[in-house]
User: Fold this.
Amino acid sequence: MFFSALAALLTFVNLKSAKAQEMLGLTMGNYAGSLSALSNPGNINQSKIFFDIHLASGSLFARNNFAYIPKKDATIYDLFFKSSDQLPVYGDDNNNFTYYDNHDLKFAQVSVRAQGPSAMYYTGRHGFAISTAVRFFTSGNRIPWEIPVVSYEGLDYSPLHDIRFSDYNFDMGSSVWIELGLTYAYDIIKYNRTQLTAGITVKPLYGLGGISGSIKNGDYIILDDSTVNFLNVNADLGYSFPVNYDDNTFGVSPTVKGSGLGIDLGIVYSKKRNDIIKHYHVRPCEKPYNEYVYRVGFSLLDIGRVNYKYNTQLHGFENVSAYWPSIDTLSFHSVNSFMGDLSNIFYGTSDGSYKGDSFKVGLPTAASLQADFYIVKNIYLNAYWIHPIQLYKYTLRRNAVVALSPRFETKWFEVSVPVSVYNYKYTRVGLAIRFLYFTIGTERLGTYLGMADLNGMDIYGSIKINFTKGGCKFKGPNKCLNYEYGFSDKDHRLYKKRNR
Assistant:
């Protein structure tokens, strides 16, 4: 049937093959360095480090509200260490997963980020960072409840027969791209106890492949196990794959199927515990860190899109209808034969649906608020909110997250416990631990403790080297010269203590 493209998208929720979304344990702390720019490019000027070398990090995130394995039947470790015949089976087709039987709109999201060599440097009022990454993102939004049920049960599922389904405004998309990031941040205000930083990251994008479908409306009736009456369909589908569309063989040149530009914008305000004083330091490492009372930031992330123009097709079905008997015999010998059959059914010709040889896929754009509060020495509380924004017709969509993360933080050790609400509905508790330069974490700890249904997973990790502010001995132009008025550090501390 026409919605087979959407059903195919949802096959990723077979959790056996689903191998983090916001990586709160990597991006929110004061030792995050270049990774902090992922949540707000202005953050690189307000951390406890002035220079870092990021070697590698990665995140894996998957979540849906349709398919799952009940927690009583299997753990996530069973998925990796048991063969498929050792896993539980459900339904007439002996699937390795079952589904939530409700009429809620469905969503699905998979996000994979492989962050390559990166670095950041901060001096004076200026911060610089460079990053590399490969990203894979898949999303399905507002998916009508019956479409994944048909995919799971088949057209012979009689409870769905003779019902007129009127669906509208849902979409799906998937894209793989290489991303280079160039970040610059500047301290607009740095006076008394106030620091205000603005930052921008410019990201050239190189698309390796993508697909995007947008369905404005789909009005249809499933009559029996082989017949569907499409009363009205208004939809678009664009794709660019590294395959030959005539025989489905891989390896079509060029490797990069499209390009584009992404932008992150951010601003960060912090209230310091002590006055900001001009420092007569020679080396960046001499500059001490001035602790904050609180820090608040706002950012717009992943503004932009990839323009796919090689080995690309765009198809449109505009207010079409069709009575389709023997729909169960539709085969998928190749991409071109499949789309040709669809076009024949709705337009009477094999190329009637063809609309062009390029399409654009928007990045998972979002607005984000971040706040970090100093509680007592080494203990902080972070608040985080992110919400998706749709800028383009064809776009990837991240889901909303609201989180509170208490954190214990030192130079050598850090632990945070993010408590988050995903999509304003699903509560999760996570854990992230950093020891020296190594970090590992998850925002769904219950998955690994066997306390949650297996409807997704989340894990991330990082290896990087940090160089802290004030990490080397002061060697100013005059050994007696302090940060103000020539007093020694000891005299300055005693003066402030006596005059409180």
